[in-house]
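Comment thread on ticket #2218

A.B. wrote:
> Attaching the input chain for the structure job we discussed in standup.
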Amino acid sequence: MESTESKILEMIRKGEGLDLEFKACRNQLNRDAYKTVCAFLNRHGGTLLLGVQDNGEVQGIEPDAAAQIRKDFVTAVNNPQKITPPTYLAIDEVVVDGKPLLRVYVPESSQVHRCNGRIYDRNEDGDLDITDHTAQVAQLYQRKQVTYSENMVFPHLGLDDLDRDLIARCRKTATLRWEDHPWKDLDDLELLQSAQLYQTDSETGKSGVTRAGILLLGKQLPLLRTVPHHRTDLILRKVNLDRYDDRDFVDVNLVESYERIMAFIHKHLPDPFYLEGTTSISIRDAIFREVASNILIHREYTNAFPAKLIIEYGQVRTENSNRPHGFGRLDPENFTPFPKNPVIARFFRQIGRADELGSGMRKMMKYSRAYGGDDPELVEGDVFRMVIRVPEFGEKTVPESQQVPSKYRTSTGQVTGQVTGQVAPWISKVLSACVEPRSSAEIQMLTGMKHRETFQRNYLDMLLKDGLIERTIPDKPRSRHQRYRTTAKGKKILESIQ
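C.D. wrote:
> Ran it. Output below, let me know if you need it in another format.
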């Protein structure tokens, strides 16, 4: 796995460009750094490396100055007198060639930003002041409106369509987290404007609540009139594989949706004891806090595809509509996060429902291995999909005669359950059916499972991966003569429960 230092060195070797800028910043912050932040926000995002000269020489930052530079930077980008609208960026300290650097990842924004009242755009040559170039400014606004649907203004929507009690609760939460939070002394309309949830349409000149505003804080009826297809379907499917064991149909605003998702998780997933250092933490909540915020923040809300979170034996699957910036499986440790709804994401961060862009994903990676024994699967496409491995309930209530010997348990908990060691009923059905080689259709018929795709993806493939069954023609997985048979490992598990 490529280290952080080697990745940064590779970036430095490529040199400055559309999405990379160096600033020397030996003992203080370059003033033009904020112009670069503004340009990155307005263009396609980028990385700012502080402590590197224009020619790529790594000179580092004086250790005594690093803390003050970080403080000055965070204060400035949160100050509407410097960056308008203000933004919230993380700044990381990294060591390259033994020298400390500061790294800032600036995501593309869904809005047009100004630095000291001027509009900057980015090209290969650096930061361009386009304020007085009307055509370029108009193109910038148009591109943002086409790319990001969250900023669509609804002039007919006002404060009466929003949950004022929820606004007050969000203000209180933000100010408890940061004593001097700017929302503290703002009234409701000023808070919405500060959070870019109430805007003026640049073409019509009319003001109103945005799509992000009604989604985040809307009362249910105005929300469903504005975004009628909005919902998140929460499903528990372990015993009744053709329908469900429990379900919550969530069609409320995103702040309350997050709470409903986490309540469903708490109800149906275990929370094993875990120590980080000397502190006990909930790794279940650390993982699914990111999962919940991801399916709400990064959804494309102009698409009617309903979001889903499905809890199955040994795993949780999620699906949500997406505007992809690539296709295929992602490597969570080596990808550049792309904000799908930056305004919604920023609001979630203010109320503690999400981490800085990218850091939540790193936490999910870290804790998923400890929780379910495997990395999460993330697949980018028109529908964004995640698969999170999870343990199962009930170790102490399982009779010893029904427990699988530890050397035959899977490390992921997919099949037998990392916590319990108890074999799910459907597993013994499939393993028994495959003692004699059988086709997928025959196994499905013998086990009484009706939906072919669900059976293949969630159950047959799972047993193949864990080595409990095998293909009779392994080199031709799609052969019409393909059969499946129980392996020696699978037979051991059958013997342990008979």
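A.B. wrote:
> Thanks. Noting for the ticket: Residues 394-422 have pLDDT under 50 and may be disordered.
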